[in-house]
Design a protein that fits this description.
CATH topology of one domain: Rossmann fold
Oligomer: single chain
Shape: globular
Number of strands: 15
Distance between the termini: 46 Å
Strand content: 15-25%
Low-confidence stretches: none
Structural class: alpha/beta
Radius of gyration: 23 Å
Order of helices and strands: HEEEHEEHEEHEEEHEEEHEHEH
Helix content: 10-25%
CATH class of one domain: Alpha Beta
Number of helices: 8
Largest sheet: 5 strands, mixed
């Protein structure tokens, strides 16, 4: 009831307009569906002119009830028992979206339990989710919310540069059966899930900012030569990822000798990145196949920056004053 909806130029305004008339219609349709189902808990009035939507609160069973993101002043509320937290986190991860997440808790163990399992780019503890500061809170998501690197993070500027990109032709080799490749992906060793590295970033007193790297997952190493595929797999594993190397002449565990039809990249499941140091036409076919996929965005790495692309970046920002203050300052010598 305290929220003021109106002109964003006014200091008294809490909620301004949404981005377009189309967005307004879609959000209002979502709210109306909830009203019809008896799940609309509250909605405030909004100006009838312009692209305004009255803030609304809607009851849901969980994030799985939402088929898409709702970019508007809509709060979805779900209740759960404390012993169901892991299941809630699993449902959030299964949605495929991973931009921002907010949590309010003064229990450090619970914060650690949740943040280490979430596949979300920016996590905010005991504070708002707005205003990522360059140098303190590198911003960007994963899955359906981005492929990285984070804006303002250590890998951001290098991503705009062009490094060495080996260009090797696909030569020889039998075409592999799609189902055989899927079986190999299903049988591959899982990637590590723990942090690889954490860095404390600067911020104001009373705020903790920690930037961490995690393994991306399973990397499909397509060579195109056996030497390329084996080198790609070695790099991926050095970053905690698992790898499946596919190229003519590859030998050993987690390898397939042959050539993968790039069109199969659209329907194969269970991989999180593709490394391919091939010629332009082959790379084009791989990009088109990956672009046609449904679900999380899969990066195609065509250059020697593979190591940094085998990780996902996550950031946790904590308002330490909400838990009694900054422990490191309290413990510091005068």
């Amino acid at each position: 009831d305290e929220l003021a909806v109106g002109n964003p130029w006014s200091f008294a305004t809490d909620v301004g307009p949404v981005i377009s008339g189309t967005a307004r219609r879609e959000i209002l349709a979502h709210i109306e569906t909830a009203r019809t189902d008896g799940r609309l808990l509250k909605q405030l009035d909004a100006p009838e002119t312009g692209h305004f939507v009255g803030p609304a609160a809607i009851r849901v069973g969980g994030i799985e009830d939402l088929a898409e993101e709702i970019f508007g002043p809509v709060l979805h509320i779900a209740t759960f028992r404390a012993d169901q937290i892991d299941g809630v986190v699993d449902a959030i991860n299964a949605s495929g979206y991973g931009l921002t997440f907010g949590l309010h808790s003064r229990i450090d163990d619970r914060v650690e339990q949740i943040t280490t399992r979430l596949k979300v780019g920016n996590i905010y503890i005991n504070r708002n989710q707005i205003g990522a500061i360059v140098g303190s809170q590198p911003f960007g998501g994963e899955g359906l919310s981005g492929t990285g690197p984070k804006a303002g993070g250590p890998h951001y500027v290098p991503r705009f540069t062009k490094g060495d990109e080996p260009r090797h032709p696909v030569t020889g080799g039998d075409a592999l059966d799609r189902d055989a490749v899927q079986a190999a992906l299903d049988a591959a060793e899982p990637a590590r899930s723990d942090r690889l590295e954490s860095i404390d970033l600067p911020g104001p007193t009373g705020e903790s900012n920690r930037f961490s790297l995690y393994p991306r997952g399973l990397i499909l190493c397509l060579g195109p030569t056996a030497k390329d595929a084996e080198q790609q797999a070695e790099i991926a594993r050095s970053q905690g990822c698992s790898a499946l190397a596919i190229a003519p002449g590859t030998v050993g565990d987690d390898t397939l000798s042959g050539v993968l039809d790039r069109a199969h990249l659209t329907t194969l499941r269970g991989f999180d990145g593709v490394a391919l140091w091939s010629e332009v036409d082959d790379l084009k076919a791989a990009r088109q196949a990956l672009a046609a996929r449904h679900g999380p965005l899969i990066p195609l790495v065509t250059g020697m920056e593979l190591a940094e692309r085998c990780v996902v970046e996550r950031h946790v920002s904590i308002d330490t004053t909400a838990a009694g203050g900054n422990a490191s300052l309290l413990a510091a010598n005068a």
